[in-house]
User: Fold these one by one.
Assistant:
Number 1:
Amino acid sequence: MAAAAQQKEFQKNFRLIVEKIFNNWQNLRLAVEHGMGGRNGQQVAIQIMDYTYQYCVGNEKISQGELEAVIEELMDQEFNTLCDDNSIPEICSNLLRYKQMAQQNQYPDIEAELIKLPPGKEWLRPDVKVTYTPVDGDSSSDENMDEDGDDDDEMDESDEEDAPIVSARVTRSQTRMQNADKFVEPEDGWTTVRRK
């Protein structure tokens, strides 16, 4: 019974360690704030943090390279973000070191190190609102705005997978010509991207 209590204590404390590290990860926060994960970027970031915790707790022997590959893939898939600043190796190194220290009940040493992290607000919680500014590729002007100032290019998440990729509106005549399998050079200022 003592081993089960010790494991529960480890899991609780390691969870706090993971949360502290992820809440201080600037690249993740910037990806969310810049809309790289879409409207639900904060929730996706929380899921990445949860998955990383589960992955570390659920696997006895994890190499740093293995954990790095997991987090890099998650950042690429979920946020279309590559971290070239060595933050992922640093995070993984610390997570694995703190995991080992937590398993050996070295919590005072861990706390002494974590207290050195810059103080910051815990933002990876569902009750905390993070505002994001969508990054719109090269066009940061009002190109996609209608007369009311609304963004006409907005799509529901369910539409994203099946929607053809078009960078601007296509006229009916262009659509008819494309459907007739004849290539029509779009008017200046229009770009049509076809699916394979």
Number 2:
Amino acid sequence: MVLAGPSKSADATFKYISPEQVPVKYGGLSKDIPIATEDTVTEAIVKPAAKYTIDLPASDACILSWELRVLGADVSYRAQFEPTTEGSYAVIVSKNRRIESTDEPVITESFKVGEPGKIVITIDNQTSKKKKVLYRFKTLPISDL
């Protein structure tokens, strides 16, 4: 048995069970979406008063889906598609928005990619505490739809 307070319960749980197997209501990413529980979860730390970017590559036309959770919330989140083709324009996928502890704990989004590029997710932590980010993504070729 392991005892942990509310602010450390997710960290304690992830020492023994991977985040992709833990239900959302307990701090994990297990949810019914196109991303399977076998898809690897990446963990990152966002330092206090800092921004952290996540690049999700897309080499061909596809549907790019992702899940993201910030433990502790109180950050800003945005996502945009940046094509690699010169002369193409960036597309805002999700406007800058504040994620509070009362919001939906897992952000789940998809974007239909028509050309090579990447989704750039920005997490802005303006608090004095570090935040842990859990995310995973999957690309599904349009021919598979």
Number 3:
Amino acid sequence: MEEHGISHRTVEVNGISIHVAEKGEGPVVLLVHGFPELWYSWRHQILGLAARGYRALAPDLRGYGDSSAPPSVASYSVFHIVGDLIALLDALAIPQEPGVIEADFDRLGTESFLRMVFATRNPGPLFMPKKAFVPLDRQIPLPDWLSEEDISYFTRKFDKSGFTGPVNYYRCLDLNWQLGAPWCGVKIQVPVKFIVGDLDLTYHYPGIQDYLHRGGFKEDVPMLEEVVVMEGVAHFINQEKAPEITDHIYHFIRKF
């Protein structure tokens, strides 16, 4: 993506190296990816926001891509992640036994797994067969918003870093609850706009739609301004509907 003016650097924070992609001048917008993604998932928004007068930053979180991958599960708590992001900004003025799910990913093959995840339109749980699985690779068609070049980039980076770091975020869920106990019940007192696709599997977790649309979310986040549900859109919304998401982000942050 260097040909589009996106620059890359590695920043030393909290004893690890964090890779960050950036473009633009002006107020900073920090874009944080999920699983199984990379800074690259925000490539469209980086370009769109930079063109509108913002400095867009998108790191590879610890354990992902070109960032360091500490071996300890406990190194992936929410405090580590928030600490990394704060330190990064400052510097720039399903529990599983370790190895089990990684072995499943290895058996599927990195590209097969990523193609399956990115292409899924089923809002139910992702199913990975444990027996007699033959890697499908290019037999799995890509959605029209993801090119062969895109999937090759993701595959190269996950082949390099592996999946242990990314999965450790999920292994740390119980620890995060323990660490966050002192803040149980605290309201989130910042302006929020929430966007989700109606085919996103997280939108179909039991009770989540009632929580989002019948007052529970607003009670916990008093400054919630809007919940947007995009029809026919799945989990990787910032890639699938790149221009629309860039517009949503821009029109929201420009108010501040």
